[in-house]
Amino acid sequence: MSDRPAVKRTVRIDATPEVVWGALTDPLALSSWFGGSARLAAHPGGTGRFVTDDGEVRLAVVEEIEPARRLVFSWWPLRRPDGAPPRPHDRSRVTIELDPDEDGTVVVVEERAVPATTGPGPRLSPRPSTRLSGSRRGPQASATRPASVARA
Amino acid sequence: MSAGGASHPPDDARAGPVFAALADPTRRSLLDELARRPSATATELAAPLTVSRQAVVKHLQLLADAGLVEAERAGREVRFRVRVGPLADAVAWITEVGGRWDDRLERLRAQLETPNHRRDRRR
Questions:
Q1: Mutation to test the B interface, candidates A4, A7, A52, A106, most B Cβ within 10 Å
Q2: How far does CA A57 lie from the centroid of its chain?
Q3: Contact A3 B6 (CB under 8 A)
Q4: What is the DSSP secondary-structure string of B23-89?
Q5: Which bin fits A108, alpha (ψ -120 to 50), beta or left (φ > 0)?
Q6: A151 has pLDDT over 60
Q7: B97 vs A: CB within 8 A
Q8: pLDDT by residue (tens digit) across A73-104?
Q9: How confident is the model at residue A53 (pLDDT cuts 50, 70, 90)?
Q10: How many A-B residue pairs are in contact by the CB < 8 A criterion?
Q11: Contact between A122 and A76 (Cβ < 8 Å)
């Protein structure tokens, strides 16, 4: 899998790992910096849902969690921005690590594309019944399904 | 800043022009925009930007030289699209995903470092 594309970002934040962790796990705080509406159940196997202002809907499942230290989740789009259908390589795994740094925290984020066939995600081709690609008028059709899809 | 072995031996010779093409923020946003749609004209791409259509054409030419986008003449207009291929595909992904994390982490930092953050947390 070493040929999968990945990005890595490091940022130092002037807040303790506990405070940063709160911004990852509290839905209100998470939505505030993620943009749109975001929530992620902070326990192994917990599901998440991210709806961004550009119309993208993503589902997520928590894979590893170590409070105030490390969070790993995989996520995939149910709907891409502007209603475009999901692409197979859009599924990826996000690893967020928090390292204390004096009074602050070094936050390291890595997102790596993963093969579409692994993990608990749904099929990635748009469902025939939801018409994801043709119309801009049907966002609710897909937006109401995440919990059941993520459990499947 | 981006990690991950997006390079394949046959593509190594193209890595130089690719990274030069991606060094410019306008070209990165053009590529990001093109990655979101099947194709677009320079005029369409210039509309939301603060740069001229002529400048956009030059940027697109550079992206095309690097093998990242391709131009196709359709009647009187030229339409551009992200070039399909392992490298271009990976670069488009890296550009889009990396740009999103840049924005998010900047907002996270601003959110946690603002003076009224602690007051907000008490509510």
A1: A7
A2: 9
A3: yes
A4: TSHHHHHHHHHHHTSS-EEHHHHHTTSSS-HHHHHHHHHHHHHTTSEEEEEETTEEEEEEPPSHHHH
A5: beta
A6: no
A7: yes
A8: 999 988 877 677 776 667 899 999 999 999 99
A9: confident
A10: 90
A11: yes
Q: Would you say A33 and A23 are in contact if contact means Cβ atoms under 8 Å apart? A: yes
H-type helices in chain A, by residue range?
17-25, 27-34, 139-143, 146-151
Q: What is the ipTM of this complex?
A: 0.74
| Of B89, B88, B69, residue with least CA distance to B79 | B69
Nearest by CB to residue A6, choosing from B4, B104, B106, is B4
The Cβ of residue B9 has, within 10 Å, a number of other Cβ atoms equal to: 6
From the list A4, A81, A84, which residue is nearest B4 (CB)?
A4
In degrees and rounded to multiples of 5, residue B74 shows phi and psi of: -130, 95
Tally Cβ neighbours within 10 Å of residue A127: 14
Those of residues 95-124 in A touching chain B at CB distance below 8 A are 107, 109-113
Structure token pair of residue A26: 């509290």
Please report, as a single letter, which amino acid is at residue A77. Answer: P
Q: Structure pTM?
A: 0.61
Q: Are A96 and A108 in contact (CB under 8 A)?
A: yes
> What gap in Å lies between CA A45 and CA A148, rounded to an integer?
13
Q: Are A63 and A42 in contact (CB under 8 A)?
A: no
User: For chain A, where are the E strands, in sequence order?
Assistant: 6-13, 37-40, 47-51, 57-66, 70-79, 92-101, 104-113
